[in-house]
């Protein structure tokens, strides 16, 4: 499957590119800067230069599926949270839908759309992530919305806990990356939104249980 990964130069995005390649897919890495191309190629992906706040249609064209793993990060202000985490995600989902591509996997966040569950400094971010998720649900796309707890750089165990809501906790980016990819091929994960943290259930089994 040809899969476009937005945020491919990010910590999770790089793992997604690497694991997609290892699984026999053709990963395309959406990146913003020329000097990030070599990183994507080294991981087995084909780089595509695009900015989520601008036209992305040409990057999405020809893909079988799209994974959103981008984000404005903690060091930018609320305007970037709106521009990337909400509007950038919506822009990408719209382009995907317009091109008749069905499968879209969103890396969201635990408590997205429920800012009261998060600390003060994350409330705006959680609101914006929630609005992007709501837009995705309103489309004709076969979406999966993955809402992990705090991301770590741990090795990962390929075992997670999923639910409509889960206790606050953490999960390795490696396991989030594997879950995003597994969601592409598990029809039971289509049209589903779920929270996840590290747990005891194999990722594939967890997706079947949704
Ligand atoms: N951190 C957590 O604990 C946590 C918990 C739950 C969910 N999440 C979600 O998971 C996401 C991924 O986390 P991460 O740590 O892997 O992210 P990351 O390392 O911060 O990577 C984010 C990527 O998004 C890219 N990006 C930003 N603006 C863009 C734009 N306008 N156009 C195209 N690409 C753009 C960045 O590009 P550059 O490389 O060019 O900067 C970067 O590569 C977060 O953004 C967040 O929404 C995080």
Description:
This protein has 210 residues and is α/β, with parallel strands linked by helices. It has one domain (2-208): Rossmann fold (3-Layer(aba) Sandwich), CATH 3.40.50.720. 37% of the residues lie in helices and 24% in strands. Strands 3-2-1-4-5-6-10-8-11 form a 9-stranded mixed β-sheet, with helices on both faces. Strands 7-9 form a two-stranded parallel ribbon. The chain is globular, with a radius of gyration of 15 Å. The model has no long low-confidence stretch (mean pLDDT 98). The structure holds NADP nicotinamide-adenine-dinucleotide phosphate. Residues 7, 9-13, 32-33, 51-53, 69-73, 84-85, 88, 107, 109, 148, 150-151, 173 line the site of NADP nicotinamide-adenine-dinucleotide phosphate.
């Amino acid at each position: 499957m040809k899969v476009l990964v937005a945020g491919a130069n990010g910590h999770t995005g790089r793992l997604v590119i690497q694991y997609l390649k290892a699984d026999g897919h053709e990963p395309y890495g959406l990146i913003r800067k020329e000097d990030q191309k070599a990183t994507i190629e080294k991981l087995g992906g084909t780089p595509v230069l695009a900015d989520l706040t601008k036209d992305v249609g040409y990057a999405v064209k020809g893909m079988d599926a799209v994974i959103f793993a981008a984000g404005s990060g903690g060091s930018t202000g609320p305007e970037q949270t709106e521009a990337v985490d909400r509007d950038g995600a919506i822009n990408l989902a719209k382009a995907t839908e317009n091109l008749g591509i069905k499968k879209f996997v969103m890396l969201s966040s635990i408590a997205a759309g429920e800012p009261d569950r998060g600390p003060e400094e994350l409330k705006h971010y959680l609101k914006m992530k929630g609005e992007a998720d709501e837009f995705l649900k309103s489309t004709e796309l076969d979406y999966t919305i993955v809402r992990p707890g705090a991301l770590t750089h741990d090795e990962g165990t390929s075992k997670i806990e999923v639910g409509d809501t889960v206790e606050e906790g953490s999960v390795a980016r490696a396991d989030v990356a594997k879950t995003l990819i597994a969601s592409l091929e598990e029809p039971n994960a289509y049209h589903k939104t779920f929270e996840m943290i590290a747990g005891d259930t194999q990722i594939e089994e967890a997706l079947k249980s949704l």
